[in-house]
Amino acid sequence: LTKYDLENAKEGQKAEITFAGKQYTGTVSRISKVAKTNESGAQVIEAEVHIDNPDENIYLGVEAKVNVKLAELKDVLLVPIEAVNVDTSGEFCYVVENGIVARKDIVTGISSDLYTEIKEGLNVGDMVISSFNGDITEGMMVTAVTEEQ
Questions:
Q1: For an engineered disulfide with 121, which of 74, 76, 96, 106 has Cβ 3.0 to 4.6 Å away?
Q2: Which has the closest alpha carbon to 138: 81, 108, 110, 97?
Q3: pLDDT tens across 133-142, in order?
Q4: Would you give the DSSP letter of residue 143?
């Protein structure tokens, strides 16, 4: 686990394990209290995951991909992670209002690899700029193009 995952990680959380193309479910059984440095030089915390239904295809000592469900929220506003910007004033998104780029300061919540929860600052239906083809500045005139989900 990274230091960013640590505040939401708890023993007993569910996990999905992928090993040799097979999917397994599991539960976080222990979280270490000692940080270590991984091969990339990042500080990480080791966690152990108990596999619920192991079979003959599990081999000890071989790496597997493990995703731990750190948090789950329903009915929240999400934006693509690349739409969230940060400067010295805090986090913000660029939106299109009447064909003009506007900055909206935001408060974020949890994130996945793809999306970030927006707790404050945006509303459902706001046209958020998530891909940049050059310099975007507040007040710039633009034509919005929507992406298919």
A1: 106
A2: 97
A3: 667 888 988 8
A4: -
Do 51 and 65 form a contact (C-beta atoms < 8 A)? no
Q: Residue 111: what residue type?
A: S
DSSP 2: B
Residues in the chain: 149
Distances from the Cα of 99 to the Cα of 3, 102, 143, 145, angstroms: 40, 9, 6, 11
3-state helix, strand, coil in the chain (%, to 5): 5, 50, 50
Nearest Cα neighbor of 35 from 24, 47, 44 is 44
Going 58 to 11 to 116 to 72, the CA torsion angle's sign is positive
Residue pLDDT, tens place only, 86-130: 889 999 999 999 999 999 999 998 887 788 999 999 999 999 998
